[in-house]
Amino acid sequence: MIQLSRRRQRLQPKKIQPVNEKMDAPPQKEESVLQNIQELGQNIVPQQPETSIHSISIIGQVEGHLVLPPQNKTTKYEHVIPQLVAIEQNPKIKGLLVLLNTVGGDVEAGLAIAEMIATLSKPTVSLVLGGGHSIGVPIAVSADYSFITETATMTIHPIRLTGLVIGVPQTYEYLDKMQDRVIKFVTKYSRVTEEKFRQLMFCTDQLARDIGTVMVGKDAVDDGLICEVGGLGEALRKLQELVDEQEAGKVVH
Q1: Which residues pair with 99 in a beta bridge?
Q2: Active site residue 126
Q3: What is the C-alpha to C-alpha distance for residues 22 and 24, in angstroms, rounded to an integer?
Q4: Which pick of 89, 103, 146, 198 has the fewest CB atoms within 10 Å?
Q5: Rounded CA separation 152/132 (Å)
């Protein structure tokens, strides 16, 4: 009887899995590909490797205490500041790369971001792509080492106030003090002198409707604002070099 039951089991046809069960994975993959095409315009997205380098982008307009219209591309300082705190506290992150393509924005918000980058205990490198205008200048120079691409530009101009301006001496004094804060910060964290920076800020023969200076790539390096002309590869290599130097210093001590 046992032998007969075994034979019957052998002769019984094998259960065929439903086609739908086998096709569960491919539809998910197709959905992922379609989502990548819809969101990013490409079917394969490069995966972020395990790395000790973290990057932050400062793009569009630096948004301060007032919310800008929804059509504006903005960098919200209340999003960037917690990231910088987390970078400082995370032992796995050894260095920070700051990518800039900004038109400027809120002065105090920009200075707050710049101060935090400048006071990080970990190596930092900034890279100006496209533009690093207005309050983007202090953010760019706040890193330990700065790069600018050949085609990128930086606009240096006096601080402006928006909204109601009261015509009293105190208004001018407030504006002058705020301007001094920017000038002192930039001259502290770059090679440009205060005299040269003020000269660039109040230049009258470059901008048609305003005063200031537009600097392209190498001009920013020649005047001492930025350390070197270079791109992403050079910025990452320099940052890794700074990380290695800091790690070697820790070993020595």
Answers
A1: 57, 127
A2: no
A3: 6
A4: 89
A5: 8
Cβ atoms within 10 A of the Cβ of 195, count? 9
H or E element that contains 148 = strand 145-148
Indicate the Cα dihedral angle 79, 103, 124, 90, nearest 10°. Answer: 10
> What average pLDDT does the segment 11-30 reach?
56
What's the chain's average pLDDT?
83
Identified catalytic residue from 133, 142, 146, 157: 157
How does residue 40 score in pLDDT terms, banded at 50, 70 and 90? low
Phi, psi values for residue 233, rounded to 5°: -60, -45
**Share of residues in the chain with pLDDT > 70 (%):** 78
DSSP string, 46-67: PPPP--SEEEEEEEEEEE-SSP
Which domains are assigned to the chain?
53-65+92-251 (3.90.226.10)
The token pair at 244 is: 């290695």
Nearest C-alpha neighbor of 243 from the set 58, 87, 80, 86: 87
Residue 3 has pLDDT above 60, yes or no: no
Is 134 considered catalytic here? yes
| Active-site annotation holder among 134, 142, 146, 190 | 134
